[in-house]
Amino acid sequence: MERKTNPKGSVTVNINATEIFNPYATDDDDPYYVDATVPYIELTGFRFNQSIEAPLTPKETLLMSGSVNSQNGRGSGNISCGIRRMFSNKAWGELEFGGSTSGLDFGLKGFSQFGRRFFANFNLLCQNHGDGLVSPGAVFSIGNQLDAHSVGTLTWKVGGSSSDLVGGFIRDNGTNRIGLTLHLGVPNIYGMIQTSHKREDTKYRLNFKGGTFGAFIEYGIEKKVSQYSTVGALMIVGVPHGVVLRLKIMRANQTYIFPIQLAEELIPSAIVYGTLAPIIAYLTIKKLFIEPYERERAKEEKEKKQMTYKTKMAEKRGEAESAVHLMRNTYERIRSEEENRDGLVIETALYGRILIGSEESDQNEEEIITVTVPLQCLVRDSKLIVHKGTKVHLPGFYDPAPGELKTLLIRYRFKTILHEVVVQDEDEIRIPKITHQVTQPTQTTSSSQ
After folding, report:
1. I want to staple 230 with a disulfide (CB 3.0 to 4.6 A). Which of 146, 250, 266, 316 is the partner?
2. How far, CA to CA in Å, does 218 sit from each of 237, 240, 385?
3. What are phi and psi of 293, to 5 degrees?
4. Which residues, 6 or more positions from 247, have their beta carbon under 8 angstroms from its beta carbon?
5. Structural element, H or E, at residue 331
6. Pairwise CA distance, residues 399 & 368, whole Å
7. What distance in Å separates the CA atoms of residue 183 and residue 166, rounded to the nearest whole number?
8. Contact 205/220 with Cβ under 8 angstroms?
9. Whole-number Å distance between alpha carbons of 86 and 63
10. What are the percentages of helix, strand and coil residues in the chain, rounded to 5?
11. How far apart are CA 359 and CA 69, in angstroms?
12. How high is the pLDDT of residue 35?
């Protein structure tokens, strides 16, 4: 149901914390003045948005959205309902009706792709502000897919007392993203550069915007902390914003945003604390809460898998023991032939969660099995070759440690010289090799099979 309706929501809470770094001037002669030791932090605004999509037919989708906004004690809100129809894989249209505390709204949207590279969309909007005042507006945009990673767009916005022309360029290769924007309009003209770099589950952002209104820089980071949760912090420094710290928490399709006004002017202490405080807070929370929670959850999942796999593992163990029993004659014959020619003789082979270099007491015997017989049976002409891939499916093997990293320890003799090698589960095996020669065997513990 969630995938079909695609619900999305956001909550924005505006916070004014300017008194922390720029306290109001005090007047000791004022008899009504109260010396507050704690800076006054004010919640200046709230905004709630919610939207859903309800498929009616394979081509028609019902769209519903609403928002409630309160700023400095004054509230407003709107609700809208629309229908989107897919005309083809390259074109769609949308009709929207709505209303707000100011009046009724009407909108018409459309998108179409021309050829392989060009596309265009439009948005016609008509707003009724009451008292018979109607404000029409329109947005027209055309774009070109320049290459596999680059897109260029040109947008014209007209309506009310303003008219804007916006050119944009975006290049995104999945790891690095850069966006360039030039805005020509009334009353403001500005340019913007947006960059981001993604590394594993972390995204770094650096943006610059400057024009007739002033200039400011944005820098921040987003971190994925779990499968469905992402946290982020963005600093905005410049004119006319001053110093703003924007915190964001995303959980599934819900977004929570907290813009915190630290200073209305460029105050160095506000910039430093606004930059460092989120990092220190995140590292502290991660160390005290997130990491212990993740370890506990991983432990519970491991125990759950082990309980589920326990019966199946007993069955697999029985199958492996039966296979080893049937290999006995082959094992004795191959081993005898190899011993007579001073060839490849497997002395001991262990498979499972082997802690190399650890004490015997640290090893869990239930997570290690002996596979000497199966490996010796794979020896041909004094050579053992096993191609890449997990060893779990080899005859005489089974998985003694589900969900854990497994290794294979082989101790063998070739030309009567003792050799030893440790191979990761997915790696290829090729023995004998002169680099495997050892003087003394390594001590480890196994469970016999």
Report:
1. 250
2. 6, 13, 57
3. -65, -45
4. 231, 232, 233, 257, 258, 260, 278
5. helix 291-340
6. 9
7. 5
8. yes
9. 13
10. 20, 50, 30
11. 63
12. 54
- With beta carbons less than 8 A apart as the criterion, state whether 217 and 195 touch: no
Q: Which of the given ranges, 37-46, 306-315, 373-382, has the highest pLDDT on average?
A: 373-382
Task: Over range 307-331, report the average pLDDT.
Answer: 87
Q: pTM for the full model?
A: 0.69
- Across 301-336, b (16+ Cβ under 10 Å) vs e yields eeeeeeeeeeeebeebeeebeebbeebeeebeebbe
Measured at the CA of 442, the angle between CA 388 and CA 306, to 5 degrees, comes to 55
Structure-token match 């497994």, residue found: 406
Give residue 227's pLDDT: 83
Matching residue, tokens 């975006």: 170
- For 377, residues 6+ apart whose C-beta sits below 8 A from its C-beta are 327, 330, 331, 334, 395, 396
Tokens of residue 338, six digits? 């190899």
8-16/254-263 β-pairing: parallel
For residue 409, give the amino acid letter.
Answer: L
Cα(95)–Cα(105) distance, integer angstroms: 11
Rg (CA), the chain: 34
**Structure token pair of residue 8:** 């999305």
The two tokens of residue 222 are: 């987003």
